Backbone:
């Protein structure tokens, strides 16, 4: 792995949104848990202490919170893709992964999750 690559992990971002196709899912917000992995070139940030040289994970997270709280989603695939677009939109991002869990989506299961990944073309 390239030694200039930094890996940001946002773990267990707990939010509530409308997700699903059943009537109770359409009418009631549900808990969702978002996990992100973002790889970016951090060579400048490693050699300075200036925020302008780093990828701001707070900005990314705030955009995701706004997306989740102000939209409705039928499909977990579409919802996960929208989160992944935000996680990967900065030009420094080389790789990003978004996984969204829907706790208690299935009887007898802790959760159902879907993960999508982005790889910057070389």
Residues:
């Amino acid at each position: 792995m390239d030694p200039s690559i930094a890996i940001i992990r946002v773990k267990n971002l707990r939010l509530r949104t409308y997700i699903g196709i059943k009537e109770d899912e359409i009418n009631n917000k549900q808990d969702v848990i978002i996990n992100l992995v973002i790889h970016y070139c951090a060579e400048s940030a490693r050699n300075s202490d200036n925020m302008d040289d780093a990828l701001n994970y707070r900005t990314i997270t705030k955009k995701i919170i706004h997306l989740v709280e102000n939209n409705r989603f039928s499909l977990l695939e579409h919802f996960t893709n929208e989160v992944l677009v935000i996680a990967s939109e900065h030009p420094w991002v080389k790789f990003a992964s978004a996984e969204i869990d829907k706790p208690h989506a299935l009887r007898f299961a802790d959760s159902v999750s879907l993960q999508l990944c982005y790889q910057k073309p070389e």
